[in-house]
## 1
Amino acid sequence: MLITMSDKEIQRLAVLQDVQDQRITQVRAAEILNLSTRQITRLLCKFNQDGILSLVHASRGQPGHRRHDDVMKSKCLSIISEHLLGFGPTLAHEKLASMFDLHIPVETVRRWMTANDLWIPRAKRQKRPYQPRYNRDCFGELIQIDGSYHDWFEGRAGKCCLLVYIDDATGKLLHLRFCQAETTFDYMLSTRAYIEQYGKPVAFYSDKHSVFRVNQKSSQNSQITQFGRILNKLNIDIIFANSPQAKGRVERANRTLQDRLIKEMRLENISSIEEANKWLPCFIEQFNQKFGKCARNSKNLHRSLTESKAELDDIFTWQELRKVTKSLTITYDKCVYILEANEFNQKLVGQYISFLEYPDGTVAIMHEGRKINYRIFNKLAELQQNEVVENKRLGAVIEHIKQQHEELEQQNKRSRSKKSMPSRKAQKMITEQRKLNPVLDSCR
């Protein structure tokens, strides 16, 4: 007779056999099995009376008391086959309960559907094949862009990001730039440098990074990112890759750069982002001589720039709409910008005008192509005692207000907004070089 036993029951059999053969005591057996001595005595009595079968669970091999009968199972499967074909187990479970009044646990439905080939678990599905495609025919037809985070300086400087622009037709590196993070302002600086050197390509090919694509649906957000607005203004398309394999050329280039570029910078004793960005054009030339190839079609699809430098300055900005109040003010990042009180600006009350923030940290206000002069009232600026009118009572009040400001600062309640404002890591480097305060900068 074949007897099925679990590991726990096999261990009990061996220990009880040792007790029966007087190799160990009942007290020692209780310690091994983590049972009481009285329970060991009961097990020994049953073992002596019924043998090995006394240690096997009595319900083994018997149908469960809570199992659904075969009639219910057949009914559910027939409904799924007829009405819910192609539904996943979770959705089928919901529809069985709401439409057919069959309350079956979702995992039971999943098990039934899997056993009857109505559902294939994700682990057992065939992986999607990523078949190769031919490269584009012309130079400038498709430019793959990506950011690669890595320890580029091997500990000589902090980890940073390398923005890579590579042509799909020739495999040539067209632009490289080190930056602290993959932000909109960094892509603004890199894209402008690229188009000023080569012209405007037909399209960029990127991943679904939030710089390029709006990934979260919200009523407050537009359907296009700041970078997408810039490309739309320049008449450059952007295509989003659905997987890393789809933009394999730039991914393979990143892997090559993480080997060769790191070693080249070590030989050149480069230990900072600034030094690396100055030297990168030399590396790009060497890289393209070794790995670049000719396109199948010799035509260059880059289009020349028709925009002036001033127009490009205004295009490559972070732009947001702000409503003009009755007091001729707008608010941006907890700063109040006061417009000049003239006849033209009076007509703007209640209208939305554009607020421009440049990559170098400066700001401007524009409406219908005309820039508007302004002055700034900074809500977060600290009060200076020499600016307070000499009045005993007023001075005491101002001192009290300053104390409240300090308390709020410690509680981090009066810091700049980080939720809806752009990342300014790219601006920080330029601002430090120019010794510029972007909030107090004068009108462009």
Note: The CA atoms of residues 29 and 35 lie 8 Å apart.
## 2
Amino acid sequence: MSVLVTNIGELVTNDPALGEGPLGILTDAALVAQEGHIVWVGPATRAPAADYGLDVAGAAVIPGFVDSHTHLVFAGDRVDEFEARMGGTPYTGGGIATTVAATRAADDATLRANLARLVIEARRQGTTTIEIKSGYGLTVADEARSLRLAREATPETTFLGAHVVPPEYAGRTEEYVALVTGPMLAEAAPHARWVDVFCERGAFDVDAARTVLRAGMAAGLIPRVHANQLGPGPGVALAVEVGAASADHCTHLSAQDIDALAGSETVATLLPGAEFSTRSPYPDARRLLDAGVTVALASDANPGSSYTTSMPFCLALAVREMRMTPAEALWAATAGGAAALRRDDVGRLSPGARADLAVLDAPSYRHLAYRPGVPLVRTVLIGGEPL
């Protein structure tokens, strides 16, 4: 079956060969999807026939958001912690243990239902590709369970057994790293595509992080790194060293960090929801972009430091707080996320790509930042099928 989406006032393709500027914008456009993929893009007046039609009445159409960093397998919430931060308590990452305890205590049905709720919430806001990490189990059984559940929702699953050292291993980091790189990795790897580590003070130092990433890579997983969130550190340099797909957070960067990213294929994934929710300084996206670094935006959806699944909200924050233009922010939230997941079939609307798109209740993509907090996503198609 084929579907024609027509009467598109402004179509963002993210393919400069198809339209104007880096976003490849076409006006008065149409596209045709067949068997889940885009097969034709062009002027509405030249659109071929299709089995079904969707007239969007002059609305803007954008690629579906690619959220390349989330932590959606968990139980409970941490609203008390959030309230304390708003009152001046600094964020340290220590609250992760609260979610670990709740997640371990929850049964599969509870975790699955919460995961499904959050994925649907994200999709309704235009997210069509999503990455999901483990990291709130921190036992062999609970990490494998988290990844099995995540795999029900997405193929982009990440083993994050090295999130923090759990309470029962306090003072015994080396023993916990041995567990993560041994029995835990063996059980987790069949359910994961990626391996991640929180390389940060209070979590894992550079040597431990490197050990975790190298073990994951030997098991066939691709590395990514939580890097430089709470302060300057070696996380970004480590990400570049091991050829990680992305270095995520990148809040505190030196000139050397930016140079290293600019000379690599590692994407800098920025997570403004975390800065919003922790009252922390925002990353300087302008410095990264001006240096030629590939930048992605993601939600960091998790119950402690960024309890939002809204990519439009994160895009608006990036424009307002991180000195990105609306075009740069949209590219980072779509094609940038695809680059962070090493995907060339999402994040764009051009022939051969998946037919994953969002129809906006607005004439231009610029309204996503111009009208923050307004639910502008009218219709979502995933693989050419309406949500």
Note: The chain has two domains: 2-64+348-386, 65-340.
## 3
Amino acid sequence: MTRLRHYFFDENLALCQIVRIFAPMIEKVILLEQADPVIFYGTNNSNILLLKTLYPKLRFAARGRAIKVYGDEDDIEMFQAFVDRLINYCNEYNKLNEEVILSFYNGESPVEKKQDSLIIYGVNGKPITARTENQKRLVDAFAKNDLCFALGPAGSGKTYVAIALAVRALKNKEIRKIILSRPAVEAGEKLGFLPGEMKDKLDPYLQPLYDALEDMIPTAKLRELLETNVIQIAPLAYMRGRTLSDAIIILDEAQNTTAPQIKMFLTRLGLGARMIVTGDMSQVDLPRNVGSGLVQAQHILRGIPGIATVEFDKRDIVRHRLVQKIVEAYDKFELTQKQQTLPPTSAGSESL
């Protein structure tokens, strides 16, 4: 009887194996919608080679944003669930390596060190945080208001934090696009005619915005977002006539706007949109007889609900340690100059 049982058991096992061999194989395409393919695939496709080792029964090839998988349906479903976890990790931390993949495969969750005041993870997993009290105030103000002014000296992180907040909102699908703008004003120099197409002429003015984006979004992904206009970088003059909805709009170097320009920009705000306006009152490059629109806007809009102003100071400067000392020295010099040009006081005139 025991022999008979073993016989039937062996027969059933063999039959299951035969059914598995001749079961229909299927093909599935897994798209990397958010995660950057360059990071996900790894250097020289090292991550893909590891996945092939972990799932030897499957055949798959990766090209662009698509991973084609060929094999048994049950195996593909398991692989899909595993890859989804990797995609989520890659999208959040902007990195993926063999150690992380093996941790997920072994049923563990990679532990990332918590960062205080984290905004997002930049390229190669670099944490981008609010590093000073006023930077934290800007993060909080942005969460509660649709229009924020960030004012303060060079190097205090106004623009950098603003762009990080916009990139985070885009990654979280809170908005559909990011629009970055700057007035095309020369900083005390006459550059004359610039060769090339319109984009080539304007890019030098907008380069600081590109620099910040390159810290936060991998190169291939950033190129794609720029080409599809999900991220738009444009001079202020191109804003007229537009209604900007479901977007975060950042105006940088706003101290170089005229009163009509900043009014035009602020009235572009559409449904589901938020704005951050940054500027440094000490670095106005407008002609002497032209007033800064940012100064006027601050006076006119003071006290309106939904509008917040965060003022940065020398303590927020996070560039080279000498930058803070340079700013302090110039502030002292300008104060001395003002005192020397002040008219005599009324008390002094009476004594004469």
Note: The chain has two domains: 2-105, 118-338.
## 4
Amino acid sequence: MAPRPPLGAGFWALIGATFLGFLGIGTVLPLFGPHVRHDLGGSDQTVGLVIGIFSFVALASRFVSGPLADRRGRKITFLAGLISCAAAGVAYLAPLGLAGMYIGRSLQGFGEACLYTGAATWAVEVAGIRRSGQALGYVSSGIWGGISTGPALGQLLGSFERAALTQVIAAVAAFAILIWVPEEYKPAAHNGRRRWIPALLVPPGFAVGFVNVHYPVITGFLVLHLARFGNSGPAAFSAYALLILVSRFFLGGLPDRIHPAITYYGGLGAMALGLGVIALGPPPALAVVAAAVLGFGFSFPWSSTAAKVLQKIPSGERGSAVGVLSAFVDLFVGVSSFAAGAVANRFGYSAAFVVAALALVAAAAAGRFVFRADHSQDGIAQVDVADECLMG
């Protein structure tokens, strides 16, 4: 196999802009609650509503950002997301009280949906469909790096106003970077009625949805669960996040080089092992290793599934596909957040991790419909030819 040409400056500019966009989103997160509760006089319920409106708007916006990326272009979708995030920061800074928080979170939800859809589809276009796994891995690294670094930066800044201003600056900086990056994608004419969720996307949607059931369990209960077993929760979560970031950056291209089913099911196996060990309440050193194994495994199912899906469909439908798959993730994370809380409240923290591990069985079953052998390389070649026609 001939060596692949290196990814160009435009691709890395795209990844850098993705990092900046999500850095701004993450910066305000740790300061929301105290600002709404103490500075604006909101109740605890108000804090929950302000935080939660983001998820509902982001979920609905997936069905807007995907068609926008297909019909108007990846670049305009990404830029629209950055403009929306900058406007969210302005709303936070405006003297609007609680209304500014609701407006800002809504704008941020729409912006996040456009950022991810635009970044993912544009990166695949620039890297090429046969490097889609690698491209999605780098995009995920930019997202995860921004979301992980943002809260630490927000705490360092010390005030919600400074964090909100940083969100505006980060979005404007990303916009300034991307405005000079050319886009080769040429939207094709879309005739006929568009289906909101094509049948082709249902199995992969369920696959990535069940994979992400563990996420609210980890974010909500890992520290609480491990507090009784040596208090290794913070270190374990750091190991989990670090392995996701490193694996997606350095190993994101594996689904392109070996059959994506291998990386998908290998990732599920590592996740199940990590969740199982954590559920047992291990000593600190083993808990950190188990969380790292979980993060390593979680690095692969999304890129494996998305790469397989994007290879099956023409370029002009990839934005909608990414939007739908992301909507499945939002839906499953939201539902599993409530379910995990109910399970933990009634049966204990360990039971929540067991449920998350069982969800991987459903993810494995859904994967059988995603990685069926009847999709040959000829189909991928046909998509490549179609891409060349669409790209002119």
Note: The mean pLDDT is 90.
